[in-house]
Structure formats: structure tokens, C-alpha cells
Amino acid sequence: MEKLAVKSQHKSLQYCRDCQPSWLKKVSALFANCAGDNSQYLLLEVFVMSIFTVPADFRIESIKEIAKLNENISIKIDEVYGNLKASTLGSGRKYSGLPEASKEQIVEYINFAKKNNIKFNYTINASCLQNGEYKSESRENIIHQISGLIDYGVEHVTIALPSLIEIIRKEFPQLKVTVSVITGIDSLSKLEAFCEYENVDNIYIHEKAYRNFSLLKSLTKIAYSHNKKIGVIANSFCLSDCPYRQYHYNYGAHATIESGMIPEYYGYKCALIKFDNKRNVLNMPWIRPDDINKYIDIGIDRFKVSGREMHNNDADINKVVSIYNDGFFNGNLAELLMCFSKSVYSEVFNIKNSVEVAQFLQDVFDEKILCNRYGCSKCQKCHKALSSIEVNSAALCKWTEFFENKINDFREGKIN
């Protein structure tokens, strides 16, 4: 059977002519004369531009700064994302950590972003809606609120729940859906299931897959065959396979619906795991600026800078984007990953972007080191790289005591 070979800056794909994705059929028709009569393959050059998506602070001045930055970088900031602080729709960040914004501010912000060729993506990525989507009254309220977002000018939404994607597909087919990293897509079967939703445009992959390049390559190939784009979080500081991940997201889903401060638990437990062993920090799925082209080459279209909650702690998101765009950083990676905000982790850790760290990551990409697949009890292959992570002992003691006291307060029922 005659096949079509597709090459781009990302990948080389082959499709049978009878089962090409619809976008490829349209494009390949324009290049039908690219191959000779006896050629088994038709070579088609497809260029797909990778982009950044960054957290919104709902300041007009920030959009001006992004537009100016975009004039000088090759990987543009194409999108900003965020949501209202308190909403029954919920999101992936609890109420207290989000920037303040009125509905009027959001409308103005969205319109100004569009004028500067920057999309706005409204995040409705709570991992649960308290089963509201299954009850008539609350379902109507969900539909009413999303209708209001469209009135604001929202054209893109980030969703974690398949049930909500289904509702949007029926009620708001004009909305383009991004599948949240919270959904946890880390296998071919999970990806294929979400590719079936025609209103899904972009899909973020589970952090645990970020250093498994053979899996990432397979995921991008499947996504492209369905005309979907694949994204990763560039500066994730989550544990690679966190034992508290889903519980923490469920906690956050409820915390976004309620106003005021809600006591933490899972975040404290997670922090103590990071403090316990430097291997846990080295093994997290953060991406060095030096490695961003490796991800582009295998087909990653979008790089999300995480940090909506960091705007309240003097984050410099544009500086982060500039460094990733340049593809090199010679400072403390913990500061970069925390967006240069005031952070516990950048106070405790100094992660040097050393030759040893670079070699360790290359060995992981080449699957010479199989972290998270066979455990760390006997493998010492990261030993040299670990010397590049320095720990501030005083800060470590201070924050360890703080988190342990918080957990003890929870254990004792001191939660008010």
C-alpha cells in the first residue's frame, strides 16, 4: 500500500494514504507532485511552531511586556492562562494562591491580549466538581457560568474532567479545549481516548513521562495523527511520580470553590519528601533550558510555565521565558523553576546546571538510566550529578520543622 512520509522540525511520520488525518489530506493534496511515479512515499515538509503559555496576572501592563518580549524571542508567548479566584467551576489552584481580578478586569485583559495576538485560556481544570455535572440544577449552573465566560471573550478553556469536556462539546462546540496535565495522561491508551474528543485541541502530558523519551515520541506521533498538539510543563517542581498527586489535586479542586485560607496537608508531605533526599529533587521532571530543543525535536508544541500562585511572590515570568528561549542558564535552577519568586525551594536548594547534571539527563533521555522504573535502592548512577545539588542546612532545618509542625497540627485536629 502506498504511504505518505511526513517530516518536520519535530519528527518523521508515515501514514497510509487511506488513513491520513484530515489535516494531512488537505495539505498533501497541494504537494501531490513532490514524488515521482515510482516513489513509495510522498515527502511533505510540515513546519509546526512551538510556543510558551504563561500564567496571567490580569494586568494590562503585563500584556504590553509580553508583546515587547515576543519581538525578541523565537519561541513566542502565544497564550496566557488563568481564572477568577472563587468559582463553583473550580480550577487547579486553591483560592488563596491566585491573583485578584474582577470580571471587568478579565474582560479588558482578554481583549487587550487578543489585540496583541496573545490567546487567553480560562482554566476550569478542577479534578472534581463535587459531582455537580450529574445533577440537573448544578449542571445548568455550570452551563450558565461557561456561557458567561464566552460573553467575556473566552475562546479557549483548560479542562481536567472528561465529563466536562463532553458537556462543552455539546453546549459550546465553538470552545477549544486544552486537556490539563491534571488529567494524568501517561500512556498511549489514555491519550487515544482523549484524542477522540473533536473539541480537544491541545493535550498536556503527565509529568512522570517527561524524561521517558521513547514514550513521549510515541505520544506525539499519536497526537499528530489526530491533529492534536502536545504540551509539557517546563518548570515542574513536582515529584516525578508523587504518591499524593491525585489527592492533592482533589484537595485543590475543593479549595478553589471556597474562599479564604484552607489548611494544607499534601503539599507539606510532598515538601518533606523533597527535603529527605537530593535524589528526589534530581529525579523530578523539570526541564533545563539547555534541553528544550530536545523536546521540540520529538514533537512537543507547547511549553507551559507553571506559577499562577507565584505572581503574589514577585515572580518574573518573562525572565523565565527568555532564559528557556535562549536555551542556556548558568544559575541556580531552583530559582529558575520557581520563576525567581520568594520560594522555600530556592532558599533550600542550589541546583547547579553542571556538566554532571547535563550528562545524567542525557543518560536518562538515552535510557541508560531508568529512573522510576526500577527504583533507587541499588542504582548509584546519579551519584556525580547529586554533587551539583547543594543544600542550605539552616534553611532545610527551618522549613523541615515548619512543615512537620503543620502536619502534626493536622494530625492533632488543630485545623482552624
What does this structure look like?
- The chain has 416 residues and is α/β, with parallel strands linked by helices.
- It is 40% helix and 15% strand.
- It contains 17 helices and 13 strands.
- The strands form three sheets. It has an eight-stranded parallel barrel with strand order 4-5-6-7-8-9-10-11, surrounded by five helices. A three-stranded mixed beta sheet has the order 2-1-3, with no helix packed on it.
- Helix 6 runs parallel beside helix 7 and helix 9 runs antiparallel to helix 17.
- The longest helix has 19 residues.
- The N terminus is likely disordered.
The DSSP helix count reads 17
Shape field: globular
How large is the radius of gyration? Answer: 22 Å
Q: What is the structural class?
A: alpha/beta
Give the assembly state of these chains: single chain
Strand order of the largest sheet: 4-5-6-7-8-9-10-11
First-to-last CA distance: 68 Å
The topology string of helices and strands comes to: EEHEEHEHEHEHEHEHEHHHHEHHHEHHEH
The average pLDDT score comes to 84
> Strand tally, please?
13
Determine the fraction of residues in helical runs and give it as a percent range.
40-55%
